[in-house]
């Protein structure tokens, strides 16, 4: 307990024990996900699952303080695990080098006490939201754009979910737009996400959407009511889980493994990266 001695003075032994017993899933291990993983590992969350199919690139380093130049070309999920274990070897970390889709998302989050949304695409966020609402798993949303971000603890069927207030139009230009950001806003966003989890395990059911504007130093809390016509938490249509929405053709996409090497490999083809893992799964990453 020496490791947590200063933290125990704030949280107390009961909360620390709860943290040790927690099973948390971090979906996406880019800027937000790697920062979340670090915070969760330092806190002493007993089991962390990290899901990401991407690899570390030079252009990630300005906003991901968990990754270094030595990590370029390595799978993000594996680097997140290695770094988390270096920080705290008393916890368990498992990695899934895959993307979520309507077939795997429910089994990937099964048994989680909390799911952290560290994704960068609205389609996948709403898919994850569908799965968490369906299985009544608390979801902690974090979305970063430029020098702004928003954060919300989603308690399925108790407070507003993402589908209550976010609309997906399937518009490629909007969904696939590359948006710049800064590590400063990423770090504060991940910190608020983890604090919402810490508060929740201590009995605080926070219903606000937090809006952070670091440039103008604004921190707003917005009360969002549940939407009676929400397709996820009210009508239980779960359109994303049922594959009824158009998938975006950008970012990282699973492709058929024609190479059949069954080993980790990266191949560059024009503006595309082909990433294959030893589990036989291959992905195409399109640079735009
Ligand atoms: Zn809803």
TrEMBL record:
One of the record's GO cellular component terms: cytoplasm
THIF-type NAD/FAD binding fold domain sequence ranges: 4-231
InterPro entries assigned to the protein according to its UniProt record, in alphabetical order: ThiF/MoeB/HesA, ThiF_NAD_FAD-bd, Ubiquitin-activating_enz
Domain of life per record: Archaea
UniProt source species: Sulfurisphaera javensis
Assigned protein family: Belongs to the HesA/MoeB/ThiF family.
GO molecular function: nucleotidyltransferase activity; thiosulfate-cyanide sulfurtransferase activity; ubiquitin-like modifier activating enzyme activity
Protein name per UniProt: HesA/MoeB/ThiF family protein
Any single Pfam family the record assigns to this protein: ThiF
Transmembrane segments: none
Matching SUPFAM superfamilies: Activating enzymes of the ubiquitin-like proteins
